[in-house]
Structures are given as C-alpha cells and as structure tokens.
C-alpha cells in the first residue's frame, strides 16, 4: 500500500512540476512568436522620401527611434484599404501610450487621384496621426520596387475609370530603421497589437 | 376523410412557402464609416436562398450613391485585385452567399452622403430568378466600424 501511495505522490509531484515548468517558466524564456514574416535585414530599410499629406516632404529618417508601419494603398479603394486602415486604428487605440512611438504611413499607389490634401483628409478620418505619402508615379514605383510591392492601374468601367491592383501587405520597420516584419493585409487587430507591442 | 385532409393541407402550406421571393433573405447588411472625401464605399450582407429557384443579385440602387456596381476583391499572392462582376452575384437555390470585406461587395461609386457610424442606408437590391423574373429586396444597411 505505501509503495503505491508513494508512487502516486511522486507522480502527482512530477505532474505539478511539469505544469509549472510548462506554463510559468518556459514562456519567460520563449521568444515572441511573430504573426508577420520576420525579415532579416543586412542594411537599414530603403528610404521612402516623398511628399506628405502635411504638405512637406518626409523620409524614413524622420522617424528615428520609432516603429513605422508602411502600407501601400489608395483612397478610391472602397473595400480593402479602409478595412486595413480601420484595423490599424484599432491597433493604435489598443496599444495606448505605446503607440506614441508608432508611425503609420500610407504610400499612395494612385498619385493621379491622391493629392496630399486628399490623403490628409482621407487618413485623418481614421487617425490624424496617420501620414500619407505620394509623388510622381516613377518615384512611387521606385519605392514600391525596393519593398517588393506591386501596383498597376487596371481598366474599370465608365463609372470607376480605373482601379488599382496593389500588394496589400504591411511593412513594419523597427526602431533601428530595419525592415523587420511583413504582415498580411488581413491581419487581425490582436495579431497586429501583439507584434507591434513587442517591437515598441 | 381526416387522413386525406391533413396531407392536402400540408401540400397547400408547402406550396405557399415555396414562393420564389419567400426563399430569399438578406441578413445583416452593413457598411463601414467612410471619410467624407472618399468617393467610394462598400456594403456587405449575407444572402440566403432557401427557395427552390436560383437567384442572381444583378444590381442595386440607393440615394447614397450615384452608381452601384457589384464587385469582388481577390487576394492573389498578397496582391489585392478588385473587379466588377458584370454577370452579378449568383445565389443558387439552397445556398448562402456572404458579402464581406476582402471579397464580394456592393460597391458604391460617387458617394452622395457622409457615411457616419450609426447611420442607416436604405438600398434596393435587384434580383433575377431562374425564370428571368426581376424582383427587389429592400434592405437597410447599418453603418458600423467592424
Ligand atoms: Cu469594389
């Protein structure tokens, strides 16, 4: 009887120890699991120097020691772009004070329709701190290329004129200016918050 | 006699509920609050066809937009493409089609009114059934940031 009891006790103690190790100790040593694809960059992220929605020009260097989320989109986009911007805004709200060091940038892939003023009013609706960037189609194409972003105007109807197909991913640049993450456009608020919180 | 009346009644009732438009329902219509300067917007809904006839959503009208087109967004290797569905959105008998962000949507072009959280937008959805018969389903979309 006593041996059975002793064995059971030892077993219970073993299980308890394993549980503590699994649920308490291990998570502290585990690195953060990113939702976004982690990019190992040898050099800082390529610069994005374009006209901004505030009427000035800006480059990535202006956001020193900040985490920058770059999205390529356009204001005529009714579905995906507002959805992504709304997700970003909700993430900013959830991050609270931590979002002070976060800059959201939308680079327009439709410079013909997206003037700096248009971008300011459009993005201001989601968050006045979101920054729009635009320029000549060539300048935007250069930036898009180094970030692996595709965009192309495609014929629409008489009423839409043209629509722009574009890569809908989010590029996350860390505090040191290195491209750190590429996230899918349909990322959830919680996934975004989790990755950004870790980087901030 | 009773034995005949009951099945007869059941056939009559079934015949009534099998009515074409009776099988179609449009649930949870909504659209996102949209910047005033934006000229476009999108509406979404869940369309169920419990009837026996195929249906196709072929268009819509609303005072909120000058023109409405039926569109589909599609993600292809991270690239978002949007195109008009000139043939409409089929809702075959016995199926449910979900219009949602990143997929099928009712696209508003030349938005005429601000779309503010809490607003309601009346839309008339136009369907064509298997016999080519047109009918309208009136819905009220909630403007909500989801
Ligand atoms: Cu569309």
Describe the 3D structure:
The complex is a heterodimer of chains A (200) and B (146). Chain A is of the alpha+beta class. Chain A is built from five helices and ten strands. Chain A has helices at residues 2-29, 80-95, 116-126, 137-146, 189-199, and strands at residues 37-38, 50-52, 57-58, 67-73, 102-108, 131-134, 151-155, 162-167, 170-173, 179-183. Chain A has an eight-stranded mixed beta sheet, sandwiched between helices. Chain A has a two-stranded antiparallel sheet with strand order 7-8. Chain B is mainly beta and 146 residues long. Chain B has one domain: Sandwich (Immunoglobulin-like). Helices cover 11% and strands 53% of the residues of chain B. Chain B contains one helix and ten strands. In chain B, strands 1, 2, 3, 4, 5, 6, 7, 8, 9 and 10 form a ten-stranded mixed beta sheet that branches. In chain B, a hairpin with a 2-residue loop joins strand 4 and strand 5. Chain B starts with a helix and ends with a strand. Mean pLDDT of chain B is 88; it is low at 4-20. The interface between A and B is medium-sized, with 30 and 32 residues. Bound molecules: copper (II) ion (CU). The site of copper (II) ion has 4 residues of chain B, from strand 8.
Give the tags.
heterodimer, A: alpha+beta, Glutaredoxin, eight-stranded mixed β-sheet, two-stranded antiparallel ribbon, 38% helix, B: 146 residues, mainly beta, Immunoglobulin-like, ten-stranded mixed β-sheet, 1 helix, globular, binds copper (II) ion
């Amino acid at each position: 009887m006593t041996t059975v009891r002793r064995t059971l006790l030892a077993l219970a103690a073993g299980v308890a120890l394993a549980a503590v190790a699994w649920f308490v100790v291990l998570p502290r040593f585990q690195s953060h699991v990113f939702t976004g694809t982690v990019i190992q960059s040898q050099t800082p992220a390529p610069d994005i120097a374009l006209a901004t929605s505030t009427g000035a020009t800006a480059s990535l260097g202006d956001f020193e020691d900040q985490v920058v989320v770059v999205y390529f989109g356009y204001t005529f986009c009714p579905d995906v772009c507002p959805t992504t911007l709304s997700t970003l805004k909700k993430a900013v709200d959830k991050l609270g004070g931590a979002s002070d060091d976060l800059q959201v940038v939308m680079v327009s892939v439709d410079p013909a329709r997206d003037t700096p003023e248009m971008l300011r009013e459009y993005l201001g609706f989601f968050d006045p701190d979101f920054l729009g960037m635009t320029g000549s189609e060539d300048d935007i194409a250069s930036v898009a290329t180094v970030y692996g972003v595709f965009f192309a105007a495609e014929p629409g109807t008489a009423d839409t004129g043209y629509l722009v197909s574009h890569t809908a991913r989010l590029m996350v640049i860390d505090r040191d200016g290195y491209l750190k993450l590429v996230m899918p456009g349909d990322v959830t608020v919680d996934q975004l918050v989790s990755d950004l919180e870790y980087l901030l | 006699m009773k034995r005949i009346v009951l099945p007869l009644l059941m056939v009559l009732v079934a015949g009534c509920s099998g009515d074409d438009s009776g099988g179609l329902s449009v649930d949870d219509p909504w659209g996102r609050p949209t910047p005033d300067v934006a000229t476009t917007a999108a509406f979404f809904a869940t369309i169920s066809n419990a009837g026996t006839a195929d249906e196709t959503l072929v268009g819509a009208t609303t005072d909120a937009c000058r023109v409405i087109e039926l569109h589909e967004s599609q993600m292809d290797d991270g690239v978002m493409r949007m195109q008009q569905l000139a043939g409409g959105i089929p809702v075959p008998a016995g199926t449910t089609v979900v219009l949602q962000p990143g997929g099928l949507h009712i696209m508003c072009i030349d938005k005429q009114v601000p779309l503010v959280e809490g607003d309601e937008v009346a839309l008339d959805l136009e369907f064509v059934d298997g016999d080519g018969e047109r009918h309208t389903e009136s819905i009220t979309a909630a403007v909500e940031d989801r």
